[in-house]
Design a protein that fits this description.
2 domains; 3-stranded antiparallel sheet; alpha+beta; binds zinc ion; 4-stranded mixed sheet
């Protein structure tokens, strides 16, 4: 499964366009696909970026705190070797892993950033019992 962006303005407003997960670069809305083997010009594969959550018991030792990956809380390393294509950030504006962003904590962190479209971050979420934006 990969993440793609369709740049057809009928599918989604640019610059974000329409982002979807699929096995092949074929837009489920407009059915647009690239010539075989081509990167673009219609559908672009995106790098998956997971969301890191600062937490005192996180299994990953970050520069400033311990961390865990929102969608894989037991993962104890970022990339495990030089060849592994694995990316993460603590900035929810940059993270695009849908599993990370739809966890309770992912939605809570995203809610602290008004520029993240609410519908995107909180759709289908369960209500939170605490205010993640309070310091
Ligand atoms: Zn499309
Ligand atoms: Zn993730």
């Amino acid at each position: 499964m990969s993440v793609f962006r369709c740049t057809n303005p009928l599918c989604g407003r640019m610059p974000k366009g329409f982002v979807f997960e699929a096995d092949k670069p074929v837009c489920p809305k407009c059915n647009q696909q690239n010539p075989a083997g081509a990167f673009g010009p219609f559908v672009f594969e995106l790098t998956v970026v997971h969301l890191l959550v600062p937490h005192p018991q996180g299994p990953i030792l970050g520069h400033h705190s311990r961390l865990y990956v929102a969608c894989q809380p037991k993962r104890d390393a970022l990339a495990r070797n030089n060849k592994e294509d694995w990316h993460a950030t603590a900035d929810p504006r940059v993270a695009n892993c849908s599993m990370c962003l739809t966890t309770d904590i992912g939605r809570a962190i995203a809610a602290c950033y008004p520029e993240i479209a609410a519908a995107e971050a909180v759709e289908g979420g369960t209500p939170l019992l605490f205010d993640p934006c309070s310091k």
